[in-house]
Amino acid sequence: MPLSTKAYRFATGMIALSLLAGGPAAANAAASSVSGGTAAAAAAGSFFSDVKIGHWAERSIMKLALQGIIVGNQGQFRPSASVSRQEAVVMALRFMGKEKEIDASQAVVFPDSFRVNNYYKPYVVLALKLGLLSQEEEFKLADSQPKQEWGASAASREWITKLIVRAAGKQQLAQELAAKSSGFQDASAISAGYAGYVNAGVSLGLVKGVTAQKFDPVSAVNRASAATLFSRAQTLAPVSYPGETEGVLTAVSGTTATVYTDDGFRTFNLAADARFYRFDGETALKSSAELQLYTHVQVLGGGTDALYVEQTDTEQQVKSTEGTIKQIAAGQNTIWLWDGQNMIGVTYDSSLAIKSQEGAKLELADLKTDSQVIVKTDTFRDKPGALEIVVKSAPVSKEGSGTVAAAASGMLTVKTSTGADETWPGAAGLVVLGWDGRALEGGLAGLTAGDAVSYSVKDSQVVSVKVTDTTVRGASGSFSAFTGDILTYTSNGKLQSSYLADNVTLTIPGVEQPVLGDLYKDDQLELSLDAAGKVTSITVKNRSLTTLTGAEVLSYSPEQKALTVKGTNGKLAALQVTDKTRVELNGTTVPLATATGMLRQGQRVTVGYSGSDAVLIRFVYQYSGTIGLLNTATKTLALSLDDGTSATLPFDALSVDWYGKSGATIADVKVGMRVTASLDTNQAKATSLRVHQGVQYKISSVDAANKILGLQPASGSGIALSAGSLPLRGDDGATVPFASLAAGGTVNVTYAGQTPSSLTLVTVRYGVVTQVGGSSVTVQEYGGSARTIELGSGYSIVKNGAVSGSVAALAAGDRVETRKSADGAVVIEANAGVKKTFWKMENGQLLVKRASLTDNSYRFTLAEGAAVTASGQPIALGALADGDAVTLYVFGGKLLEVVKG
């Protein structure tokens, strides 16, 4: 019965002196302590205390110990000690599997000059008999060294080379190469009769020179080198040792390994301290996972326990067939596969492994007709069968639920309750229902990230989606009234009431910073509601507002509330002022009664009106627009205003206020600049100019309660900006709520002079450049679709710290951030990535090896849906292993891509 691993360890401690250490009494004890001192005793030296992990001969020493070729001395191997001739003879006979032919009972008498320890004499006799040693040569060698014992003397490099070449059965090759020059500079030092064996040993890869030019034939061989030489020779003269199994590795886990042998499949338990090697390296592998499946392996151990597993080649004994599953005949254990030309029947048994392309384990029941698969069948059995099926894609039909992660470009990505992302294309005729049962306008595009949904998939296409809960609900209707914090509107002929959220936003076309009091009865409203049903935003859809900027008041009747004005374009407008009319003076809303006395003939006002109703009256104290004319000789300023009209203003002197430019004068102001011109008290002349200047910032902090932003410019010190009263829009011009601002985001602040006048949330996108054109760049966005960016004029490319105005600075494969600058020009900034060494995943964070003890940049939080790739193809996060070289791409403080290699 084979000894257990524990018994092997115990036997190691009991051996007082190994056969390689010398001494008959101790050697006899060793020989009798474990199964006659042969192969089973080998495992006693499985782990030697003086052969540390990583020792250059570790593999060979452990392997030969488990094979019984070498044995330790009280748990030690003494790898640096010289090996004697008599010890080398014992190793050679065990290497050949000939130890059982030893006759220890026979009397052995050698010449007095040929001295051998009594224990080793039977081994030397057998070696002479088998031709491993030549009696004439060895007796002559002993005679030439009368002061040394032949057996106890250290084996020289040339002597042990000759012994191993003979043990490997390559004596004929040695004879053929005897007359050939060895190529070593010290070839003349090789003793007579050894040159052919040295040449044969070198040509067979058994031995090497101590350098490329020197063989050093007479220097002693240490025990570690001897073990390595015999280990190499095993490829030439394979011997089956007790406790050794050879075959093809078909499965491996952390605790077991399955090998196909001549007797069928065998499964071994992997000992906790088992070692794993490849034939082409001495250093142990990190784990069994580094062994390559379906290659030949050698397993050493006891019974079903494996202590040593070596992958002996790199050729996988399998073939792969890619095709489409057409039928699964479970009763016949056969899968019928169409490879594009032929129908192939593939048999399988219980050892079949099925997995997804990402490596997830699947069951046979998960295989579906018309699935695209890769089938690996073996080439090592008489009747080959399927070993592994990798499902590339399968038609799926299912019901599911989860949270919308993304919904764009006809694709729906849902995060399920398990945390996994599922992405499905929308089928033709897809129906998407909102939380209120209405079909969403735009289909999938009408969904919002975070919406809870149920969905149906048929043949891998989503055919229906129903919103079951949403953070943003939509409603529409006709405005009726608002009272306190309740909005009343009519929807589908029914009166509805909803509470208003604390930070409700209101958008009315043509009205800056509107308030709820600006709503008119029957205004058509689009509403957004939160999960609690409170209204978070209101947009008036049907209001058509006409604006006259700098219009002249012709008359105003307080009794009739009738206002007549003439625009700068000469257009007349007779307007009805109502209780809803908003009146502004110097940016502040005032009661109509306060402003009545100011509505005198000749007064300049800006009016906004819908139909004949005056919606807004703003007393003009300034004009904002683009300079069309600035004549210092005639002292004339002409502005093109935002409403399409123009205003021509005289001036006596103009002071200039310009953010970031101290000491600015009128000479610095140019045609085409956007400015705000302030008027004198008579609204007749311009007195000062505030130049509009855009500055781009990164948001460093957000105080939502007080609406204060911490902003960091590209260079210089950060600022705190009170943004509660500033108009806030997206870079598409649409009003956005303050809640859209978050740390890490990008904003443009427009200053009128030193005063912030508006805030724009900049859309920043990240992705990989796929194509570079003369005037455009195509970027595959992370988690999204490909976008082609038209560069326009004034664009800039930032790469490797340099700013360029040429698109040629970019190349396909560049990871980039794209955005608009403060002046609206396209900015594309390349990210070179950070090269690191992967360590492990921990609590959703990716950890890398620290460059030093002071390196604190070693933890990275992966963004949801972060890409993990290798050679341009997506891989599973679990495919990353300790020590892998990785490049990390961090954008906006988030790790968006990890590239292996």
Q: What structural class is derived from the secondary structure elements?
A: mainly beta
Task: Name the strands of the widest sheet in spatial order.
Answer: 8-7-6-11-12-9-10
Oligomer: single chain
Extended strand count: 51
How many domains make up the 3D coordinates? 8
Helix content: 10-25%
Number of helices: 12
User: What are the low-pLDDT stretches, counting only 5+ consecutive residues below 50?
Assistant: 1-46
Mean pLDDT: 85
| Beta-strand content estimate | 35-45%
What spatial form do the alpha-carbon principal axes imply? elongated
What's the Cα radius of gyration?
44 Å
The biggest beta sheet is recorded as: 7 strands, mixed
**How far from one another are the termini?**
48 Å
How would you describe what is shown here?
α5 packs across α6, α8 packs across α10 (195-203) and α8 runs parallel beside α11 (223-233). This protein has eight domains: 57-236, no CATH class; 244-311, OB fold (Dihydrolipoamide Acetyltransferase, E2P), CATH 2.40.50; 318-393, Nucleic acid-binding proteins (OB fold (Dihydrolipoamide Acetyltransferase, E2P)); 398-469, OB fold (Dihydrolipoamide Acetyltransferase, E2P) (Beta Barrel), CATH 2.40.50; 473-540, OB fold (Dihydrolipoamide Acetyltransferase, E2P) (Beta Barrel); 546-619, OB fold (Dihydrolipoamide Acetyltransferase, E2P) (Beta Barrel), CATH 2.40.50; 622-691, Beta Barrel (OB fold (Dihydrolipoamide Acetyltransferase, E2P)); 764-831, Beta Barrel (OB fold (Dihydrolipoamide Acetyltransferase, E2P)), CATH 2.40.50. The model is unreliable at 1-46 (pLDDT under 50). The chain is elongated. The chain is mainly β. The strands form eight sheets. The protein has a seven-stranded mixed sheet with strand order 8-7-6-11-12-9-10, with no helix packed on it. Strands 41-40-39-44-45-42-43 form a seven-stranded mixed sheet, with no helix packed on it.
